[in-house]
Amino acid sequence: MGVMVDVHQLYKYPFEQVVAIYLRKYPSPMEKNVTAVKTVEEKNDLSTGIVYRRRIATCQNVIPEILRKVSVLQVSEIYLEEESWLNVQERNMLLKTHCLTWTKFASLSEESVFRKSLENPNWTEFIQKGRISITGAGLLNCVLEAFAQAFFNQGVKKGIKIMETLLQEQYGCPLS
After folding, report:
1. How far is it, in rounded angstroms, from Cα 78 to Cα 36?
2. DSSP assignment string, 87-152
């Protein structure tokens, strides 16, 4: 079956500022579930100007204890891998994220893009499409997917709020 998420957010800040905040947004006291983000690879393609990064995020396992009766869910941390391609000249950054934990039982994938807004080049659009599907947990598949959808939706709202807060703290009120 699977759970889908589709997000479109407009930040009234320039692309460069939004990307700078995004790349250092975690860990943060505003989001205690993300405990670490480590850049494990970074390459700058001199011919295209594209900066490639691969980062690993460490997150606390937020699955409720009652659902952790399933042995495979009894882990304290979840790991996510994010790859990004930053094109400063074109003013866009593509991101692909997937879960490294539970790969035999669950699939989490996201594709996101930050890009200069067509409405105003001093603003930045954020578009994200994500999918979570769970297999191999028998009757719990639907329960875990329902939990995942609620958590995913809450996480998106929290992530946007953190971005807006950090942007305002760093750069002041949004541009009009």
Report:
1. 11
2. ETTTTEEEEEEEE-SSTTTEEEEEEEEEEE-SS-TTSEEEEEEEEEEE-SSTTHHHHHHHHHHHHH
- State the Cα angle at 31 between 58 and 92, rounded to 5°: 75
The separation between CA 44 and the C-alpha centre of its own chain, rounded to angstroms, equals 22
Cβ atoms < 10 Å from Cβ of 81: 14
The pair of structure tokens assigned to 101 is 């934990």
Question: d(Cα 132, Cα 148) in Å, to the nearest integer?
Answer: 7
pTM (two decimals): 0.90
**Tokens coding 70:** 């399933």
| 34, 174, 12, 88 alpha-carbon torsion, rounded to 10° | -70
Residue with tokens 């609620």: 150
Q: What is the pLDDT of residues 121-131, one digit of tens each?
A: 999 999 999 99
pLDDT in tens, 97-112: 998 987 777 788 999 9
Tally Cβ neighbours within 10 Å of residue 163. Answer: 19
